């Protein structure tokens, strides 16, 4: 449920991830291919110092040191073995980054996804390696939301993750979060001002989060700290959050709220559009954002994800009577 930003590294301790781009979805960029292939080869043969030197300061800070990168390389090599072959490659430009992705078969039978993201100066701004994910099976693909859902905020927000495919939404591999959303606020193509080192730099920080429908509060957490940029709380993935029972077997989760801002208690009846807290950075999250998803139970770890179709909203300026926002759209409530 972490909002996986492309300025981290997937190690055994923390996960900063993204979805798989479909091979052939766009013509590969030759320079990004060259860089991605070069750094994948360096990492696989153990030349981690060369990789480290090309990482941005933000990447190095998020990783925590050359020793951690070296330990990660040893762990990947031991678990997967040498690369046996490349299954496919792709490149993508998004949010000011050039991203290279590779699916590769390895000698121990595993298929791994390799991803590198580069800034304009060719510095490494994101990197991860993980088993190739698959979209979770769901019996609810044709489900129609019963509650009258509105967007859980006012103003214009950007859909960082949302949709039904892994390309659109890395949550799609998780059964309970199969149709989840991560929302941020972007201005001039960025989610923050300055270098983004402070929580207060983020445009969505402390913005009101609203009940997306009438419902009853069945769970709330409010005392967890907001994580500094570069740190995550994997023991409390949802962080400060509110769970609403919307009736008819629909439960909605609103997560990563700012500590001390949750305004509702268990048993409270809330109305659609009522403020329930403020956007924060608590839990397993890489930057301030709102995570929202709907499922069949109030237990984060035991439920089946349900599609959340919102009513009467704007997507990239076009009115939607009913729909599911997807990654890359800017959405807001029509006034």
Automatic annotation (TrEMBL):
InterPro entries in alphabetical order: Cell_wall_metabolism_enzyme, Dup_hybrid_motif, M23ase_b-sheet_dom
Molecular function terms, GO-annotated: metalloendopeptidase activity
Cited CDD domains: M23_peptidase
One Pfam family matching this protein: Peptidase_M23
Signal sequence residues: 1-23
SUPFAM superfamilies given in the database record: Duplicated hybrid motif
Gene3D superfamilies: Glucose Permease (Domain IIA)
M23ase beta-sheet core domain location: 207-296
Keyword tags: Signal
Protein name (record): M23ase beta-sheet core domain-containing protein
Species for this entry: Nitratireductor pacificus pht-3B
Taxonomic lineage: Bacteria, Pseudomonadati, Pseudomonadota, Alphaproteobacteria, Hyphomicrobiales
């Amino acid at each position: 449920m972490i909002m996986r930003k492309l300025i981290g590294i997937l190690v055994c301790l923390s996960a900063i991830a993204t979805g798989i781009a479909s091979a052939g979805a766009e013509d590969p960029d030759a320079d990004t291919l060259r860089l991605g292939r070069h750094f994948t080869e360096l990492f696989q043969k153990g030349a981690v110092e060369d990789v480290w030197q090309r990482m941005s300061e933000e990447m190095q800070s998020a990783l925590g040191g050359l020793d951690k990168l070296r330990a990660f390389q040893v762990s990947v090599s031991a678990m997967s073995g040498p690369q046996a072959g490349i299954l496919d490659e792709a490149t993508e430009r998004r949010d000011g980054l050039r991203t290279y992705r590779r699916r590769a078969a390895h000698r121990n039978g595993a298929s791994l996804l390799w991803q590198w993201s580069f800034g304009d100066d060719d510095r490494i701004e994101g990197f991860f390696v993980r088993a190739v994910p698959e979209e979770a099976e769901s019996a609810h693909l044709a489900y129609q939301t019963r509650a009258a859902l509105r967007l859980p905020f006012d103003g214009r927000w950007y859909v960082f993750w949302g949709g039904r495919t892994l390309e659109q939404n890395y949550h799609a591999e998780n059964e309970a979060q199969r149709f989840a959303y991560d929302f941020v606020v972007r201005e001039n193509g960025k989610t923050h001002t300055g270098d983004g080192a402070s929580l207060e730099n983020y445009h969505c920080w402390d913005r009101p989060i609203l009940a997306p429908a009438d419902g009853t509060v069945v769970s709330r957490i409010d005392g967890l700290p907001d994580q500094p940029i570069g740190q995550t709380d994997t023991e409390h993935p949802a962080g400060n959050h509110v769970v609403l029972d919307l009736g008819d077997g629909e439960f909605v989760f609103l997560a990563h709220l700012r500590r001390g801002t949750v305004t509702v208690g268990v048993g409270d009846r809330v109305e659609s559009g009522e403020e329930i807290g403020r956007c924060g950075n608590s839990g397993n999250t890489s930057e301030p954002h709102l995570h929202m998803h709907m499922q069949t139970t109030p237990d984060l770890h035991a439920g089946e994800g349900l599609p959340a179709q919102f009513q009467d909203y704007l997507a990239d300026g076009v009115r939607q009577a009913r729909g599911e926002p997807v990654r890359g759209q800017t959405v807001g409530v029509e006034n």
